[in-house]
Amino acid sequence: MRYTDTRPPSRGRAGARGVAVPRSRASDTGALGDGPWAPRNLLIPYLLLALSFYRAHGYLLQQYLRMLGFFGVDITTIYRTLRQMEKQGLVDSAWDTEAQGPARRVYSLTPNGHQLLEGWASALGQYREVLDRFSRVYQGSEPPPVPPSEPED
After folding, report:
1. pLDDT tens by residue, the chain, 153 residues
2. In this structure, is residue 108 part of a structural domain?
3. 27 to each of 33, 42, 56, 90, how far by Cα in Å?
4. What CA–CA distance (Å, rounded) separates 89 from 92?
């Protein structure tokens, strides 16, 4: 089973323009999309974001993720991630017996979870700046940076 790292990527080494780049691990290598910035690795911040707005059970969180474009996340992955987050003190859970049908475990964000969400938001904001700059340079709306010249001997 692959370990789910809940730390925001800001704990990595500084990359371009001071943006944190996640440290590479053996498990992060592989096909395109399997690296530290693969969409599936954004499950933690998206769950934290959802739980910052409301208490929810896994199936509601799965619907929320699908509305944001995460179609490939199955419910077992969501519940496994929520249990790991609960063990780490990021979320709390309780049984909701008031709704119709069987009781459901609902999750809510803890103060530690909110703090981690703030870290993720900051790191992802910085990462977005780097991606936006890449896009501008690629599209030609911004000139590429000119490397400094080598000092002559």
Report:
1. 333 455 555 444 333 334 343 333 333 333 334 444 455 578 999 999 999 999 999 999 999 999 988 888 899 999 999 999 999 999 999 998 887 888 899 999 999 999 999 999 999 999 999 999 999 999 999 999 998 888 776
2. yes
3. 13, 16, 31, 24
4. 7
Q: What CA–CA distance (Å, rounded) separates 19 from 13?
A: 8
How many CB atoms neighbour CB 45 within 10 A? 19
Separation CA 153–CA 146 (nearest Å) = 21
Q: Which helix (H) or strand (E) holds 20?
A: strand 20-21
Q: How far is CA 153 from CA 134, 146, 148, 150, in A?
A: 34, 21, 15, 9
As a whole number of angstroms, the distance between CA 59 and CA 129 comes to 33
The residue segments making up the domain with residue 81 are: 32-137
Residue 97: give its domain's CATH number. 1.10.10.10
- Alpha helix (H) residue ranges in the chain: 43-53, 58-67, 75-87, 111-139
